[in-house]
Amino acid sequence: MKRIIVRTPNFIGDTVNITPCLELVKKEYPDAELIIVGPEFVKDIFKYDKQVSGFITFSSKKKRKLSTYFSIIKELRKYRGDLGIIFVNTFISAVLFKLGKVKINIGYRKEGRSLLLDFSPKLNYQKHYINRYASLFNEFIGNKYVTLPPFPFRIPEKPPFIFPMPSPLSVSIWEAKIKVTATTVRNNPFNCSGC
Fold first, then answer.
1. What pLDDT score was predicted for residue 156?
2. 3-class DSSP state of 33
3. Euclidean distance between CA atoms 87 and 93, whole angstroms
4. In the β-sheet with 83-86, what is the strand arrangement from edge to edge?
5. What is the pLDDT of residue 173?
6. Contacts of 105 (CB under 8 A, 6+ apart)
7. Which residues are CB-neighbours of 172 under 8 A, at least 6 positions away?
């Protein structure tokens, strides 16, 4: 597989949940390019991923417009995907990948779309979303993996922003002011013991 096209879920949290599955995909096809299809926010989530070579994005407000569908089909045809992994369980997502001429499409059997998919296992609602997403690909390759890979997001060694801490003298004055005004306590971003 040279080019794998991934249709992400429509929400940020669900999109983060597919990242262990994408790590399995990268492990299985280390030389493959990934093209991410989804709402505009996916660019921010995957911009540092070296295997992501392209994005097909759309505005969340315009995702159900006919012009958006035609634009996605046009972009899919341009990329000529070898494998399409569709994490959204909608009929239209399978139609778009089929019309976009992605060679092999996988996704869960929902909304009568199994005729449009080359691999469509039944969705197990008993699994957590992270496991559901990873199982889709793992089942496609014959359940090769037993465990999920480590979570791919790295926490920077140096925090990007540090709140300035007040000096000990200003803390005691600050605590005294809080005792006087109840509204200040509600708006206080710090945990003040004894207030």
1. 58
2. strand
3. 9
4. 52-58, 33-39, 3-7, 83-86, 104-106
5. 45
6. 83, 84, 86, 94, 97, 98, 116, 117, 118, 119
7. none
Residues 53, 34 contacting (CB under 8 angstroms): yes
pLDDT of residue 164: 56
67: helix, coil or strand? helix
pLDDT exceeds 90 at position 99:
yes
Residue pair 86/94 in contact (Cβ under 8 Å)? The answer is yes
pLDDT computed for residue 59 by the predictor: 85
Residue linked to tokens 């929400």: 11
Provide the CA 143 distance to its chain's centre, in angstroms.
Answer: 22
Q: Give pLDDT tens digits for 50-88.
A: 899 999 999 877 667 888 999 999 999 999 999 999 999
Phi-psi group of 101: left, alpha or beta (phi > 0 → left; psi -120 to 50 → alpha; rest → beta):
left
Token code pair at residue 180: 């006087």
Tokens of 158: 């140096």
Predicted TM-score (pTM) of the model is 0.76
Q: What pLDDT score was predicted for residue 150?
A: 74
Q: What does the alpha-carbon distance between residue 19 and residue 9 come to, in Å, rounded to a whole number? A: 11
